[in-house]
Amino acid sequence: MAKKPLLQFTSKGIYCPPAKVYLDPWKPVDKAIITHGHADHSRWGHKQYITHHTNVPIIKHRLGDITVSGKAYGETFLINNVKFSLHPAGHIVGSSQIRVEHQGEVWVFTGDYKLEDDGLSVPYEPVKCNGFITECTFGLPAFSWVPQQQVFDDINQWWSTNQAEGKTSVLFGYSLGKAQRLVKHLDTDIGKIYTHAAVENMNEVIRPLADLPATTRITKDTTKKELLGNIVIAPPSTHGSPWIKKMVPYVTGSASGWMAFRGARRRRAIDKGFVLSDHCDWHALLKAIEATEATTIISTHGYTEIFTKYLQELGYDARTEKTQYEGELSELEQKKESEVTE
Fold first, then answer.
1. What is the pTM of this model?
2. Which of 31, 337, 34, 70 is nearest to 195 (CA)?
3. Which three-class secondary structure state does DSSP give residue 318?
4. 24-51 pLDDT, tens per residue?
5. CA-to-CA distance for 59 and 63, rounded, in angstroms?
C-alpha cells in the first residue's frame, strides 16, 4: 500500500492528515496554520488559528474576534506527533514559511515570500527540506527586479519633481505590506506622508512591530492645501474614486511587480509605474529552491505551468497544484477597505 503524502491538496486547502491541520486553508476548518495576513492566505471562519506572534495583531485587525495562538520563529510545536515550526518568509511583517516534519519526511510551505531584505519584515531564511511548496507569481524570466534602493530613489525623485510643479503625489500600494514598505523608505525631508484610512489603520497595528516614520491620516477635515506638494499613500482601489478628487491637482503612481509589464501603467490609467514587488522574481525563485536542497517542488500560484516545466528540465520532480491563492493580484485590495473615506 502506497504511503499517503504528508501534505495533500484538498478542496479546503493544503491538509496534513496525520496532524489533522490545514495550512492557509481557503474554506473554514477546525485548525489552521497561517503564513501571513493577506486576505488570500488568512481567511475568516476557522475555529483555531496558529501563526507567528507578530502576525497575531494583524490578522485580529483583519478578521476580528478569532481564537489564535502565536509562535516564535524556529519554535517547534507538535500536533498529533507531527513537528511544525515557522521560519521567516521576508514577504511582509509577520510572514512565515511553515516547516512540517513527520517520520523522517520534511516539507516546507512558503505561502508568499521574497529574498530581498525590505527593512521591515524579518529577512527570508532558506529551510532545507525534501519537498518545497512555492508560489511563482512572477515565475517568468522577464521578471527581474532591480535593488529596492534604486526604486526608492526613483520614487523620491518623482515626489520631489511633483512638489516643484505644485502637485500632490498619490502613490498606490496594498494597505498591508506594500504601503508600510513605501512609508519606510520615503524621504521625509521632501515633505509629509499622508495616508488613506485603510493604510493608517494598518500602520497603527504594525507600528509597535516595526519602525515606521510619522504619517498623517487623511480625514474629512483635511484640506487640499495641506496635501499640496506632499505624498499620499492609498490602496489601489481608491484610484478614480470620489475620495481622491479632493487632491486635485495630483499625479498618480503605482508600486507593483506588474508595472514590469509594458502597458500595465497605461491600462490602469496611472501616471507613473514603479516596479516593486513583495514576491520573488524569476532568479530569486530559482535561488530559493536550490538553497532548500529539495528534490520535489510544487508550484501553487502564478506562472505555474511555465515555471514547473523549466524545473522539470532542470531535473526536479516538479508539478503544479491548484489553490485559491492570488499572489500580487490580492493587492487590488478588498473593496470594504477602500470604501473608508475618513
1. 0.94
2. 337
3. strand
4. 999 999 999 999 999 999 999 999 999 9
5. 6
